[in-house]
Amino acid sequence: MRFGAATVSFLLFLLLAPLPTSAQTRALSVAGGEVADDFKYLVDNVQLDVEDVVTAPLHIASPDSVLRSPKFYLGLASAGVLLGGSFALDQTLRSHLHNMSSRDANLLQSISYGSVGASVALLYGYGLYSDDARARQYALTAGQGAGVAALLAEGVKAAFGRLRPSQNHHSHSEFFDGGRSFVSDEVAPVFSLAAGVSEYFDNAWYVAGPIYSLALADGFGRMGHDAHWFSDVVGAALLGWGTTELFLYLHEQHAAEPSRWRVIPMGPQAALPDDRSVASAGCSVAYFW
């Protein structure tokens, strides 16, 4: 009976709902075009990201290579110092957090997931509403970073085999022992999403502080479950943050270098990166100069 009543209510809503006005129709059409552009943006950049990452060692001699930038190695050194310092806090923070109730730990994780995820969704929605392509692209890049960071975290887990605190709480140095503690594959994607939001606002303190704090709440929730050491959380945070930062950098380079081979999805009237349009369907291989 509930299903039948719900069906009748839905049909009545369709019959009685006002038809969209011409302005609403135009707005939906514009939004649909923006979504299509965003899909092309993702397809375009993902293929170039793969090419850039795979061929990066071949271009190390180039003056413009990121692998020759002092900032790159300074960033790596800073990340190493931060990760190394976090190991010193493993036992101390565990002693304060591992007795957290399961309910509180779950609440922290839910708040983290919900707030950071909603922030990215709102950023994309804002981009649609205000026709701000940069907002939409940062949200999409954050999502791409989150997916890749989650996969990388799985690889790191398998490589290091660190035991969880619940498996050996007396020592935090049990690596290569078949464990899955280092790094947290739940924390890494949350920090990827947070990085996209923070970068859109140029890492302003009033955005970076709250969004990264909310992402860190997920790590504290995992520690409350006694599933991770603090260094697992910091390692995951660096992995997630770094993945999104890398993709944002690469996508800026792609926009500045239109003379690259691209496989572009085509619709009935598709726009090319140089603002030309073609009537086509399917897929096109293009080179622009």
Provide a concise account of the structure shown.
With 289 residues, this protein is mainly α. The protein is built from nine helices and four strands.
Q: What can you tell me about this protein's structure?
A:
With 289 residues, the chain is mainly alpha-helical. It has helices spanning 2-16, 22-55, 70-87, 90-97, 102-130, 133-160, 187-200, 205-224, 230-256; strands at residues 261-266, 270-271, 277-278, 282-287. The chain has a domain at 69-257. The strands form two sheets. A two-stranded antiparallel ribbon has the order 1-4. A two-stranded antiparallel ribbon has the order 2-3. α3 (70-87) runs antiparallel to α9 (230-256) and α6 (133-160) packs across α9 (230-256). The protein is globular, with a radius of gyration of 23 Å.
Highlighted features:
mainly alpha, 289 residues, 4 strands, 67% helix, two-stranded antiparallel sheet, disordered N terminus, disordered C terminus
**Within the largest sheet, what's the order of strands?**
1-4
Uncertain ranges: 1-17, 22-29, 277-281, 285-289
Main sheet makeup? 2 strands, antiparallel
- Could you give the order of the helices and strands? HHHHHHHHHEEEE
Mean pLDDT across the residues is 82
User: Would you tell me the structural class of the helices and strands?
Assistant: mainly alpha
Q: Helical region count?
A: 9
Tell the overall outline.
globular
Measure the end-to-end span: 64 Å
**Strand fraction:** 5-15%
The level of helicity is 55-70%
Please tally the β strands and state the result. 4
State Rg: 23 Å
